[in-house]
Amino acid sequence: MSNRLPAILIGIAILAMVIYSSVFVVNEREQAIVVRFGKIQSVKTEPGIYFKLPFAFMDADRVQIIPDQALRFDLDNIRVQVSGGKFYEVDAFVVYRITDPRRFRETVSGDREAAESRLRTRLDASLRRVYGLRGFESALSDARASMMQEVRDDLRADAESLGLSIQDVRIRRTDLTQEVSQQTYDRMKAERLAEAELIRARGNEEAQRRRAIADRQVVEIVADARRDSEILRGEGEGERSRIFGEAFSRDPSFYDFYRSLKAYSTSLGSSDTTLVLSPDSDFFRYFGNPGSSALPANGAPAASDVPATNGATAPADGAAPTN
């Protein structure tokens, strides 16, 4: 019995190895292709435990595991030309699934990199075509969704020929190239400077208009004020004359005498005033003899009719008074 134990253990080990090499497991995120002597024997798309020929000797029953989930590849820094002639840089990515493992194996031997390389070439050409039919603004507007839909439709036929299904195509970035960016910046700067000059010119025009309105209003206000002041001054002068007229009309001789005294005060008020007048001048008619009632030859009342003021006496010949 002891001599048979090693043989039994070896047999068990060999059996375990045979069973292990004959079993493979497919989980929910995978699908498997069983290849026997270079030909596809079966495709396992449901998760579970499956059997195959053990050890895969002489190229018998090899299992190729293929992802059964959404996959993605990116295409960066694509230089595209828009309808206006300018160039832009575009980043995009594609989401796909392997829906036909058999065709995927037959066309690219189940190599994801080979399949993505073919799709990447087709994606590059499709992006150039779609952007070439539109302007740069389309990628920044509502037309962006239709552009991605159009690119996805372009890729669908090639993807199906590889056993793939295109789930989505997205444009991640649409940016200016370095030279176009500088040109766009210079153009935007010039536009903003022109807009600033326009606003400044409109502001100056509005300022001049308002300044002219203010100046005109000042002239009108000053003119109205002067007119009102002249009217009030004239009314005041008229009222003054009326009051003086009423006051002096009560005694005209006194009014005449009062005006003469005012004239004397004005003309003789300064000590350095010198008057050269004829003694018979009407200016001195109130400088007569207080006791005489005769008028001078020129019809002025005699000096005797007017009392002397400030103690001054006028000579009978009409000479200047002496204090």
What does this structure look like?
The chain has 323 residues and is of the alpha+beta class. The chain contains 6 helices and 8 strands. A 3-stranded antiparallel beta sheet has the order 3-2-5, with helices on one face. A 3-stranded antiparallel beta sheet has the order 6-7-8. Strand 6 and strand 7 form a beta hairpin. Helix 3 runs antiparallel to helix 4. The protein is rod-shaped.
The total of beta strands comes to 8
Give me the side-by-side strand order of the main sheet: 3-2-5
**H-E order:** HEEEEEEEHHHEHH
**% residues in beta strands:** 15-25%
Distance between the termini: 183 Å
Flag low-confidence runs: 291-323
SSE class: alpha+beta
| Residues in helices, as a percent range | 40-55%
Specify the number of helices.
6
What kind of assembly state do the chains in view correspond to? single chain
The major pleated sheet works out as:
3 strands, antiparallel
Chain-wise SSE layout:
Blueprint: H1 5-22, E1 23-26, E2 30-36, E3 39-44, E4 48-51, E5 62-67, E6 71-81, E7 87-98, H2 101-108, H3 112-132, H4 143-161, E8 164-176, H5 178-249, H6 252-268
Antiparallel strand pairs: 1-4, 2-3, 2-5, 6-7, 7-8
Features:
323 residues; alpha+beta; three-stranded antiparallel sheet; 6 helices; 8 strands; disordered C terminus
